[in-house]
Specification:
Blueprint lengths: L32 H5 L4 H4 L3 H15 L4
Length: 67
């Protein structure tokens, strides 16, 4: 991740998000493949910004531990 050489830890805001939560790398070749392939859906994004932030944050926390 450009600007985050060790990757983006769960619960840490991506440094590429601007003040409107838009990706500064959108449409650029240096945008990570994982970001390009992300497909928003109701189970991940909910139906509001607050719900999306909670759902995605929860998903990050659940997947940040080695099991």
């Amino acid at each position: 991740m450009p600007g985050m050489p060790a990757g983006k830890p769960a619960g840490v805001r991506c440094v590429q998000l601007d003040e409107h939560n838009l990706c500064r790398l959108f449409g650029k070749p240096e945008r990570p493949q994982v970001c390009c392939e992300f497909q928003p859906s109701a189970d991940v994004c909910g139906d509001s910004k607050d719900q999306a932030l909670w759902l995605i944050g929860n998903l990050e926390q659940q997947t940040s531990f080695i099991r």
